[in-house]
Amino acid sequence: MTHTPRIALATYDPGSGVSKDRDLPVLLRALAAAGAEASAVYWDDPEADWAGYDLVVIRSTWDYSWRAEEFADWVTRCGKATRLVNPADVVRWNTDKRYLGQLAAAGVPVVPTRYLAPGDAPGLPDDREYVVKPTSGAGARYAARYTPADRETALGHLARMHAEGFTAMVQPYMRGIDVTGERALQFFGGRLLHASRKGAVLAPGTAYDADKVAHPGLEPWTPTPAEVLVAESALAAVPGDPDLLYARVDLVLGDDGEPRLMELELVEPNLFLDLHPDSVPAVAEAILAAAGR
């Protein structure tokens, strides 16, 4: 008898609202059509039987950054109960953006980053625009763009994050975003799936605690060889050479016109399948292959 793979796509509970994950219903239909028993399951559902699935795919646990410790505990438990992708150790590593420092040390060209933990002196640039954001966050949460003239506002931003226990990241604002946008290269099943480009998320003067449009002006993009090279170097530098099912590599052009890594998203990246419908079969195939391992 042929075994029907049971697959859980872990997502968040939108409460009384509607889920913002437009990839989820598309993937559920594609997996069902391919012969799998696929379900969307809230990651924090206390009744979920994770051991009853052949594979759990972290898809859209988009509230985790507010509950980082709880999420880390779930990742560990779920990874012990069944096959979890991406693997638990990778997910825990990737939830703290101090990983950018490790990738930079490995030779990956990243956006220059300073880290300011609670108690550190609040060193801020005085010669150019810069960005302040937490090392644990998603969707531009608690992120803002400042000029040297905004120092007092930026200090208040740092104080708020430190009071809540967050370590802050301070990065030069990459002006190339305003001209050529930010690129998102999606990898799935070990190969480049598709790429997209979006406009600037952080507008001058927008408060750090204001809601932002996460993917403004999103459009398909054909990555350059240099962009693919940087993306592949970032993936190759992930500790432990893990078996990654999926990855999104966010790049921006530096002042020299060369691509720099902004973020390596290995936890719960939006796949933008509505923009790239031809990618759906490849994603479903890769998930089924992972369930069969």
Determine the strand fraction and express it as a percent band.
Answer: 15-25%
Estimated helix fraction: 25-40%
Largest sheet: 5 strands, antiparallel
Low-confidence stretches: none
- Helix-strand string: EHEEHEHHEEEHEHEEEHEEH
Short description:
The chain is α+β, with helices and mostly antiparallel strands and 293 residues long. It is built from 8 helices and 13 strands.
Describe this structure in words.
With 293 residues, this protein is of the alpha+beta class. It has helices at residues 23-33, 68-81, 88-94, 99-105, 151-163, 176-180, 225-236, 280-291, and strands spanning 6-11, 37-42, 55-60, 83-85, 114-116, 130-134, 144-146, 168-172, 182-188, 191-198, 219-220, 246-253, 259-265. The strands form 3 sheets. It has a 5-stranded antiparallel sheet with strand order 11-10-9-12-13. Strands 2-1-3-4 form a 4-stranded parallel sheet, sandwiched between helices. A 4-stranded antiparallel sheet has the order 5-8-6-7, with helices on one face. A hairpin with a 5-residue loop joins β12 (246-253) and β13 (259-265). The longest helix has 14 residues, at 68-81. 38% of the residues are buried. The mean pLDDT is 92.
Give the helices and strands, then pairings.
Elements: E1 6-11, H1 23-33, E2 37-42, E3 55-60, H2 68-81, E4 83-85, H3 88-94, H4 99-105, E5 114-116, E6 130-134, E7 144-146, H5 151-163, E8 168-172, H6 176-180, E9 182-188, E10 191-198, E11 219-220, H7 225-236, E12 246-253, E13 259-265, H8 280-291
Parallel strand pairs: 1-2, 1-3, 3-4
Antiparallel strand pairs: 5-8, 6-7, 6-8, 9-10, 9-12, 10-11, 12-13
Helix pairs in contact: 1-8, 2-3
